[in-house]
Design goal:
Helix 2 crosses helix 3, helix 7 crosses helix 9 and helix 9 runs parallel beside helix 12. The longest helix is centred in the middle third of the chain and has 17 residues. It contains 16 helices and eleven strands. The chain is an alpha+beta fold and 378 residues long. It starts with a strand and ends with a helix.
Length: 378
């Protein structure tokens, strides 16, 4: 693998800068792909973006950036900074690069001595200082695997890559390029229909990762590997829509606790059931929400589908109740009739919750751990 350090001015970097959103972002005379398929969207806050400009304006050193030389089908031309004719992908430094390009393009102003200045409002001398600033760029040439290994090592300082962003670097291709249109852009279709149900941010690849979990039972890398060279991601997009359509049909009354649940698993396990009546489920939902014994509204949805009451986080007996009942029983387990220390016993509902039992003293008994777990089928 060949890695060479080059100095490139801001003037050279911003030449031919264009941001066409989903169609791509380019600079350096259109030879630099600033946002390859594995890169995230621009995520710097205003303060971070402005600090990049102030660092350059004051002549302070900016962290080294990394480019990757890629094959260029264009006719032979002047030698590139990497020492070979070709184009480049920006591996690390996208946020700093776009900050510089946007400022020179006049997209935002920075404050100097409490006065906002767009690039076009700076004096000629100040503009020259910014344009002549030299950036340190490591240009890498090597096999795809070498470049991807390097990408994983350098990551992005201060804005650590998510697991899905790293997967995107490994499985880049036609499938990923199409998938990102649906799942990875600000205001993308997946966000528009699923924002209330899916945690995270599209530009940090959370929606894409969730959809992949849903379609392949959690094996994200297996699915991406199998479909890396597919022409499009329609299968994933259609499955994502099917999951959400099912959720909205079965549980039409939205509640905030529905966000972040594993709807893909619920759809996989229960999507074909004919006994799930929306009105009946809503009535039971309201009953359970009003039940003082139920501590987790989020868990109600899984309980209604599976019958597993452990998801409800049912109220338990507090330590005072346990101690009082232990003293009443004189440490004797009513099932095996043996004496135990309190630490060797567990509180049990005499009448189970699903039969109407409550977590009150009158419904409490202290059983030895063996009998309590035998009774509970643990």
């Amino acid at each position: 693998m060949k890695i060479e350090l080059k100095n490139i001015t801001v003037r050279e970097l911003v030449e031919g800068y264009v941001d066409k959103a989903e169609e791509g972002v380019r600079g350096y005379g259109s030879k630099l792909n600033i946002r390859p398929a594995y890169q995230r969207e621009f995520i710097y806050k205003d303060k971070q973006r402005n600090e990049v400009i102030h660092t350059v304006r004051k002549g302070f050193p900016l962290n080294t950036m990394y480019w990757v030389a890629v094959e260029d089908p264009s006719p032979p031309g002047p030698l590139s900074p990497g020492g070979a004719r070709g184009s480049y992908e920006l591996m690390d430094g996208q946020q700093r690069t776009i900050s510089l390009c946007q400022y020179v393009a006049g997209d935002f102003a920075i404050e100097i001595d409490k006065t906002p200045y767009f690039f076009g409002n700076l004096t000629a001398v100040r503009q020259q200082e910014i344009l002549d600033y030299e950036l340190q760029i490591y240009v890498c040439e090597g096999t795809d695997q070498e470049k991807l290994d390097w990408f994983k090592i350098i990551n992005i300082a201060g804005e650590k890559l998510t697991d899905q962003e790293l997967r995107n670097a490994i499985y880049t291709g036609s499938w990923l390029a199409d998938a990102k249109k649906w799942f990875s852009r600000t205001g993308c279709p997946a966000y528009a229909i699923g924002e209330k149900y899916v945690n995270g941010s599209p530009i940090r690849q959370d929606f894409l990762e969730t959809a992949l979990h849903w379609i392949n039972n959690g094996d994200v890398e297996g699915y991406m590997s199998a479909h890396q060279h597919d022409a499009d991601a329609q299968e994933l997009w259609q499955h994502y829509q099917a999951v959400l359509d099912w959720v909205k049909r079965v549980f039409p009354s939205y509640r905030k606790e529905m966000k972040g649940l594993d709807w893909g698993k619920f759809y996989r396990d229960h999507g074909d059931r004919k006994d799930l009546n929306a009105a009946t489920l809503e009535s039971r939902l309201k009953e359970l929400i009003e039940d003082d014994e139920v501590q987790s509204v989020k868990g109600i949805y899984e309980y209604l589908l599976t019958g597993n009451d452990k998801t409800l986080n049912l109220r338990t007996f507090d330590d005072k109740m346990k101690r009082k009942k232990y003293e009443e029983q004189k440490g004797i387990c009513p099932m095996c009739k043996k004496h135990f220390e309190i630490g060797e016993m567990e509180a049990d509902h005499i009448l189970p919750w699903h039969n109407g039992g409550k977590s009150v003293l009158e419904n409490c008994q202290m059983l030895c751990k063996m009998d309590n777990r035998t009774k509970g089928g643990k």
